[in-house]
Amino acid sequence: MIRTLVVEDDFRVAEVHEAFVARVPGFEVVGIAHTAADAVRQARALAPDLVLLDMYLPDRPGLEVLRALRGPGMAPMDVIAVTAARDVETLRAALQWGVVHYVVKPFPFSLFRERLERYAAARQRLAEPEALDQGSVDQILGLLRADSAEDLPKGMSKATLELVAASIHDADRDLSAAEVAELTGVSRVTGRRYLDHLVRRGLVGLAMRYGSQGRPEHRYRWTGGAAGGKPGPGAP
């Protein structure tokens, strides 16, 4: 389980975030802090794997909490900013201090789940004892990079991307491009294009199945998060 500390000054919003975390397989909330001082205290005592950090806190700015979490005596922990802060300066500073995602409130559960699933998948890949080639590095970084609908290649739509991703996500086995096309109603060529995009983003794994003759078949399997619930791959 990924042990998570929720830092949010609004008690009701903190409860919502706690409930959101509980709905994502593989995560558990180990603490809730409503002030900067309590956030640092709990982080030091609990050593969570992940901190969901609001940037607007009543006693100190969230950026000061972020700096404190990177200070001497603190265990390594990842941080996702979950905040209403929309200014470029805060975003730039948060990235400089190593946040892995930046989620702007308000947001739907589907987006929140996608960010946690991406983080979990990247964390799992980084824990695997393997030599990384450029493709592996690109895949892991892709998991920690949230593409928006505007970032999609020309001619691709968010709706179709989500449809293709859901067909892979919900399957209990690997699928071919032809099978995805049949499930989604798109052409095989279109399905293959969206699948290749999901592979580049690190959300889908690609394997080759070799038969007795002819070209090997491409097989696709969801790797971007825990099973249960449909992904939101095109969410901003």
What does this structure look like?
It is a single chain. The strands form two sheets. A five-stranded parallel beta sheet has the order 2-1-3-4-5, sandwiched between helices. A two-stranded antiparallel ribbon has the order 6-7. Mean pLDDT is about 85; it is low at about 225-235. β1 (about 1-5), α1 and β2 form a beta-alpha-beta unit. The chain has two domains: about 1-105, Response regulator (Rossmann fold, 3-Layer(aba) Sandwich); about 140-220, Arc Repressor Mutant, subunit A. About 45% of the residues lie in helices and about 15% in strands. It has helices spanning about 10-20, 35-45, 60-70, 90-95, 110-125, 135-145, 160-170, 175-185, 190-200, and strands at about 1-5, 25-35, 50-55, 80-85, 100-105, 205-210, 215-220. It contains nine helices and seven strands, in the order βαβαβαβαβαααααββ.
Write the layout of secondary structure elements.
Blueprint: E1 2-7, H1 11-22, E2 27-33, H2 36-46, E3 50-53, H3 62-69, E4 78-83, H4 88-96, E5 101-104, H5 109-127, H6 134-143, H7 158-169, H8 177-184, H9 188-200, E6 204-209, E7 217-222
Parallel strand pairs: 1-2, 1-3, 3-4, 4-5
Antiparallel strand pairs: 6-7
Helix pairs in contact: 2-3, 5-6, 7-8, 7-9, 8-9
Primary descriptors:
alpha/beta; Rossmann fold; Arc Repressor Mutant, subunit A; 2 domains; 5-stranded parallel beta sheet; two-stranded antiparallel ribbon; 43% helix; elongated
